[in-house]
Amino acid sequence: MKNLSGYNRKKIFVTRKLPEAAMKILESKAFDVNVWTKETPPPKKVIIEKVKNVNGLICLLTEKIDEEVINAAGEQLRGIFQVAVGYDNINVDVATKKGIYVTNTPGVLTETTADFAFTLLMATARRIAEADRCVKTGKWKIPWGLMMLLGQDIWGKTIGIIGLGRIGGAVARRAKGMNMKIVYYDVYRNENLEKELGAKYVDLETLLRESDFVTVHVPLMPSTYHLINEERLKMMKKTSCLINTSRGPVIDEKALYKALKEEWIWAAGLDVWENEPTDLNNPLLTLDNITVAPHIASASYATRTKMAVMAVENLIATFEGRIPPNLVNKEVLKK
Ligand code: NAD
């Protein structure tokens, strides 16, 4: 890397207004900060223009920082500082070739995201969204229906965790509190969690066949694209629930629609979608056995602030000539 020290007057483009605490840190360091203030992401042509002239880019997962954008970057661009743990929107290989740091925000969102994954699991099992609609739309006619809105039990059931990393591990701890049997599949074994929680390592097919709840926590990569497809949905129990708070394209939505419609599985809970925002014409939205959210698993006041502050700290470290604490592409240091 070239000499990065001295952050004064460095030009920074921020693709969305950050929480106040993060903006204050940026302002206190006398950067030349330009913020895209609209609610919607900046168009690609704006990002392309900006990367030609700025030294640092703070972005969200909604911005596609692909080969075209990175190749447009001028020599002066030192880092892409993502406000999220997942960074599948960034072409890291191309950034690395150009000597540009890529950073993310791991850890600070783990518990908040796991809280939400477990909330979605429980809401799906106990049909909370349907129950809410039932009361609000006047469909609640019988005072107490013995067979009304029946759901699935959670206590003591088997949870299958695909990707037992930070968030998957935090979900496993919550599952332990619900007396659940924990099985997991990952490309690495996590023997510490096996000992701590009695989690059992199994292959993906066994996980799908044995679990009452399947929850997905892998990053989106070529190897995880449509990991849950028609063939694998057919392996799941008819009474099972599938929960996704990772990234939408990990599940083949067309196959999921068939699985829910034809009742190969009992229900699903989705926070993330193949296209975001999902189209109102998405057939999944016509089904009652799916509980949905607009990609909000890490959305607590405190956590979103921590994520933004972490991205700013990575940026400051870069311009102070230090290695940013959450550097994703460590190979860039060899350049
Ligand atoms: P992590 O790196 O700690 O965990 C990911 C785990 O997946 C690792 O244990 C890894 O070995 C495993 N894995 C990778 N490829 C795999 C494969 N092909 N098969 C099985 N396992 C595989 O990451 P994390 O901090 O737990 O975050 C996980 C993902 O959650 C992020 O990449 C992000 O996409 C998503 N996320 C979503 C939200 C949201 O708002 N919905 C919030 C935070 C994170």
Strand pairing plus helix content: what structural class?
Answer: alpha/beta
The gross shape turns out to be globular
CATH architecture of the largest domain: 3-Layer(aba) Sandwich
CATH class of the largest domain: Alpha Beta
Content of β-strand:
5-15%
Could you state the CATH homologous superfamily of the largest domain?
Answer: NAD(P)-binding Rossmann-like Domain
Largest sheet: 7 strands, parallel
Helix content: 25-40%
- Overall number of domains: 2
What would you report as the Rg, rounded to the nearest angstrom?
Answer: 22 Å
Strand order of the largest sheet: 8-7-6-9-10-11-12
**Ligand roster:** nicotinamide-adenine-dinucleotide
Oligomer state equals single chain
What is the strand and helix layout of this fold?
Elements: E1 11-14, H1 20-28, E2 32-35, H2 44-53, E3 56-59, H3 67-72, E4 79-82, H4 92-97, E5 101-103, H5 110-125, H6 128-136, E6 158-162, H7 166-177, E7 181-185, H8 191-197, E8 200-201, H9 204-210, E9 213-216, H10 230-233, E10 241-244, H11 253-261, E11 267-270, E12 290-292, H12 301-319
Parallel strand pairs: 1-2, 1-3, 3-4, 4-5, 6-7, 6-9, 7-8, 9-10, 10-11, 11-12
Helix pairs in contact: 1-12, 5-7
The site of nicotinamide-adenine-dinucleotide has 31 residues, from helix 5 and helix 7.
Structural features:
single chain, 335 residues, Rossmann fold, 2 domains, disordered N terminus, binds nicotinamide-adenine-dinucleotide
Describe the overall structure.
By secondary structure, the protein is of the alpha/beta class. It folds into two domains: 4-106 and 301-334, Rossmann fold (3-Layer(aba) Sandwich), CATH 3.40.50.720; 110-292, Rossmann fold (3-Layer(aba) Sandwich), CATH 3.40.50.720. It has twelve helices and twelve strands. It has helices at residues 20-28, 44-53, 67-72, 92-97, 110-125, 128-136, 166-177, 191-197, 204-210, 230-233, 253-261, 301-319; strands at residues 11-14, 32-35, 56-59, 79-82, 101-103, 158-162, 181-185, 200-201, 213-216, 241-244, 267-270, 290-292. The strands form two sheets. Strands 8-7-6-9-10-11-12 form a seven-stranded parallel beta sheet, sandwiched between helices. Helix 8 (191-197) links the parallel strand 7 and strand 8. Helix 1 (20-28) packs parallel to helix 12 (301-319). It is globular and about 70 Å long. It starts with 10 loop residues before the first strand and ends in a 16-residue tail after the last helix. Residues 1-5 have low confidence and may be disordered.
